[in-house]
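Tutorial handout. Part one gives the primary structure; part two gives the three-dimensional structure as tokens.
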Amino acid sequence: MPRCIIFANGTLPDMHSARELIRPDDLILAADGGTRHALDLGLRPSVIIGDLDSATFDLKPLTEAGTRIIRHPRDKNKTDLELALEHAVEDGQREIIILAALGGRLDQTLGNLSLLTKPQYAALDIRVDDGVEEAFFIRDGALIRGECGDLVSLIPWGREVHGIHTEGLRWPLSNETLYPYQTRGISNEMPGNTASIKIGSGLLLVIHRRQLKNENQRSETK
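Part two.
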């Protein structure tokens, strides 16, 4: 099954890096104002979901080209991204990448990350990514693919995480515990192209920050 890409209405610090994440057969969804990012990348969403209070674009050409609009009332108990994610899961999507869900408002960023912890999503591969940073939760283990010099941070979510084993990180952990009130897991480094993480119990937030490839990209993110 093709992956599902959901565009949120946050920031994209590097459009080139974001564009490199997209594959030709990806299913494109947009949460309200996230449509602007899809359009900037030359993509037409299959579905736009939300109350459309952030819509600064003309919907008519999109609907005429086949885009489906799922409009919700403005007074609602869920964010547009939560509605879009629920739609993707109900549609049977099992590998989902959410773009433009980091940066900007801190409350929105934390809320967006929290969405990934829903117990019903435990068997799915759902990640937040913007081309520079990816963030995801692990309940058992994960493999990170990157490059030498990439940063990897491990953050216990809600409570301590036990039985942590890592390979491919500069400072390894072997059957150790990380606590949410300590910063020991921040800013580890990848000396190679892959790293693996396994945990015994708990919920671990993994943030993988990629190295920018050239000076032009560095300047675009400032």
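Part three, for discussion. Residues 80-90 form the longest helix (11 residues). The two ends are 37 Å apart (CA to CA).
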